[in-house]
Amino acid sequence: MADNETIVLETTKGRVVIGLRPDLAPNHVERIKTLAGQGFYDGVPFHRVIDGFMAQTGDPTGTGSGGSELPDLKAEFNAEPHVRGTCSMARTNFPHSANSQFFICFDDARFLDKQYTVWGKVVEGMDVIDTINKGEPPRSPDKIVKASVGAAA
Fold first, then answer.
1. pTM score, two decimals?
2. Does residue 13 surpass a pLDDT of 60?
3. 96-111 confidence digits (pLDDT tens)
């Protein structure tokens, strides 16, 4: 996997490496790389963490209602299954509303298939994701300390 095909999340619980899938969702991958490169995700909490389901982050307000100043993305729904380690974009009920928030699946969540844009998968550090503090929001939320694109990590 080439350096520019990964995102490294240094979290309050440890290091997580996500393999990017531009073949599935080129615009979403580009957005994640752009925001990581700008430092947008640095210090952002995991604001919605449901045991056995997923850990969501990407909102600097920590409320689940915030995003970046960039325009929302057109959906790139694909057939990649939502299984353990899948990274997918969060959105509102409107399909073309993904912006900066994403989630990482703790377990299979196949009911999300073809309704959310899968853009990557955890290739290292899923054990770290498993330890993120749970809650909606967690009492003491874990954070992304720094997010970087591959070689920049």
1. 0.96
2. yes
3. 999 999 999 999 999 9
Contact 100, 40 (CB under 8 A): yes
Instruction: Report the 3 state secondary structure along the chain.
Output: CCHHHEEEEEECCEEEEEEECCCCCHHHHHHHHHHHHHCCCCCEECCEEECCCEEEECCCCCCCCCCCCCCCECCCCCCCCCCCCEEEECCCCCCCCECCCEEEECCCCHHHCCCCCEEEEEEECHHHHHCCCCECCCCCCCEEEEEEEHHHC
Phi and psi based region of residue 12 (left: phi greater than 0; alpha: psi -120 to 50; beta: remaining):
alpha
How far apart are alpha carbons 17 and 45 in whole angstroms?
17
Q: Tell me: pLDDT of 153 over 50.
A: no
Measure CA 8 to chain center: 11
12's tokens: 């309050």
Report whether 27 contacts 75 (CB < 8 A): no
pLDDT tens readout for residues 110-152: 999 999 999 999 999 999 999 999 999 999 999 999 999 985 4
